[in-house]
């Protein structure tokens, strides 16, 4: 493959980051660094300019086989010999290493993903370190129970029963491109705390921080093979990992369409799996909401990270009495947001991750408008290079409109009117998704009536898009199976064994 001229020297990054981008990137497998067969490469782009900044190996089935074997050897070897407190200390050291490497990690993420450098520092680095520290504490808290049993045979025999928790085994983790480092940590941290080993497959669009994380894990002192990183295309490396008979548990975050393929592949091998999938999250605004929060809702709920968030509030249901005011505020917010590279903190709308995603979002807006929806702000790409889409506001869409039904993953919001609580609940639940929702009102009783009725894994009140390592995260319906974060996340990576003793 011919690699285009790299533009890393033109990025506003440190010399250390430039050197990393220009490096000869390899797969991190076991104790070594591997190339892909035939030296196949994937070009990595800067979304703000469209230029190539790096290349990584295009791993496939052979590389996945090697990585799974390395993870299995670590699971059955040195990793299983460590005490829980030793796993905890290693995770804490890794958190410190991520923080110390924060300037490089943040610059690499902004160069590769396009997101704001502020978000990269706060979430990709800061929240990743926080998540590692939180999950580190669970390493020493995976406990079973003693059970009273009533087994009647043979007569006179007494029994003592108990359960113990054991690591599920080798985990295949497949993560998306919207928060590349953070999503990798969301999978790796609980898996390691539970005593599992991992083969990580990052998105082909954003593989760079995953490779750097793999290096940090090695440098921290984890035994070789505990975490392996295989870059490659989803239909090659991802499919090979999902269908691999040596994988005991699959953890996937991404689209519902791909999640269904992952689930089918897992079932064929009876592999355990958890899926964090798409969303079409409603933000429900009652007429007694604090009007000062409308702008916050637009920025935090819709335009945060260019709408490339699975919990993006891209359906805003507004009580009719305040619909015009909300629409005017959303249009003013959209038109006032500054568009540009994520390296300038003053820019509030940064590029989408790829030309493909830009084209997809613009095509959905075009289809929605053709079906009768009205574009009242944005709806197009700005002039110039890069994969940008103007912040977009849609009104007048029918319930069947693609912009109402499907996940967009871009800076696009549809405003829809409702009459009363029953109408709000009906519209909010009229979706195949159920990842999250938010309700905006000064009446706390009204908020909890809605929260109880909506079919969503997370419900926010007078806020949106905020998460915490201790707060379970996941969805109803086609938004997934299982939960991230908290104690329930550890359970995803454990098996329960019952032991019964006859006395």
Question: Can you describe this structure?
Answer:
With 503 residues, the chain is α/β, with parallel strands linked by helices. The chain has two domains: 8-277 and 481-498, Aldehyde Dehydrogenase, Chain A, domain 1, CATH 3.40.605.10; 282-468, Aldehyde Dehydrogenase, Chain A, domain 2. It has 17 helices and 22 strands. It has helices spanning 15-21, 61-76, 78-81, 84-100, 102-113, 117-138, 180-193, 208-220, 234-242, 256-269, 294-302, 323-336, 355-370, 402-405, 421-429, 444-453, 486-491, and strands spanning 27-29, 32-34, 41-45, 52-57, 146-147, 159-167, 170-174, 197-201, 227-229, 249-253, 272-276, 282-285, 315-319, 374-377, 392-395, 412-418, 433-434, 436-440, 458-461, 476-477, 480-481, 494-502. The strands form six sheets. A seven-stranded mixed sheet has the order 14-15-16-13-12-18-19, sandwiched between helices. The longest helix has 22 residues, at 117-138. The radius of gyration is 24 Å and the shape is globular. It starts with 14 loop residues before the first helix and ends with a strand. Mean pLDDT is 96; it is low at 1-6.
């Amino acid at each position: 493959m011919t690699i285009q001229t790299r533009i890393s020297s033109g990025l506003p990054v440190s010399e250390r980051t430039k050197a990393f981008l220009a490096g000869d990137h390899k797969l991190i497998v076991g104790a070594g660094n591997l190339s892909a067969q035939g030296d196949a490469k994937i070009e990595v782009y800067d979304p703000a300019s469209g230029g190539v900044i790096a290349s990584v190996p295009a791993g496939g089935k052979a590389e996945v086989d090697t990585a799974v074997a390395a993870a299995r050897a670590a699971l059955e070897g040195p990793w299983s010999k460590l005490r829980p407190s030793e796993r905890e200390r290693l995770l804490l050291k890794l958190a410190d290493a991520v923080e110390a490497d924060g300037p490089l990690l943040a610059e690499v993420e902004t160069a590769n993903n396009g997101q704001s450098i502020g978000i990269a520092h706060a979430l990709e680095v800061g929240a990743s370190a926080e998540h590692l520290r939180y999950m580190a504490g669970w390493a020493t808290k995976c406990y079973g129970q003693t059970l009273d049993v009533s087994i009647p045979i043979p007569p006179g025999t007494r029994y003592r029963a108990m359960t113990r928790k054991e690591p599920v085994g080798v985990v295949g983790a497949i993560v998306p491109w919207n928060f590349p480092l953070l999503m990798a940590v969301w999978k790796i941290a609980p898996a390691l705390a539970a005593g599992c080993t991992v083969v990580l497959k990052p998105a082909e669009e954003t593989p760079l921080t995953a490779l750097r994380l793999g290096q940090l894990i090695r440098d921290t002192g984890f035994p070789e093979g505990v975490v392996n990183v295989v870059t490659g295309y989803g239909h090659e490396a991802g499919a090979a990992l999902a269908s691999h008979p040596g994988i005991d548990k699959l953890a996937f975050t991404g689209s519902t369409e791909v999640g269904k393929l992952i689930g089918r592949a897992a079932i064929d091998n009876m592999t355990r799996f958890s899926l964090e999938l798409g969303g079409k999250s409603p933000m429900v605004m009652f007429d007694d909401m604090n009007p000062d929060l409308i702008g916050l809702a637009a920025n935090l709920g819709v335009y945060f990270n260019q709408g490339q968030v699975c919990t993006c509030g891209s359906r805003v249901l507004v009580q009719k009495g305040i619909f015009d005011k909300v629409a005017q505020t959303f249009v003013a917010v959209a038109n006032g947001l500054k568009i540009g590279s994520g390296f300038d903190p003053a820019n509030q709308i940064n590029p989408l991750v790829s030309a493909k995603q830009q084209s997809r979002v613009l095509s959905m807006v075009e289809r929605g408008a053709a079906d009768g929806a009205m574009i009242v702000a944005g709806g197009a790409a700005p002039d110039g290079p890069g994969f940008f889409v103007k912040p977009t506001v849609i009104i007048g869409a029918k319930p069947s409109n693609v912009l109402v039904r499907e996940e967009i993953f871009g800076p696009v919001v549809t405003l829809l009117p409702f009459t009363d609580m029953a109408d709000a609940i009906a519209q909010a639940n009229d979706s195949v998704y159920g990842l999250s929702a938010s309700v905006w009102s000064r009446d706390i009783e009204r908020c909890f009536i809605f929260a109880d009725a909506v079919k969503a894994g997370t419900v926010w009140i007078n806020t949106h898009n905020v998460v915490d390592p201790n707060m379970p995260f996941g969805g109803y319906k086609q938004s997934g199976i299982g939960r991230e974060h908290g104690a329930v996340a550890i359970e995803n990576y454990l098996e329960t064994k019952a032991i019964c003793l006859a006395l």
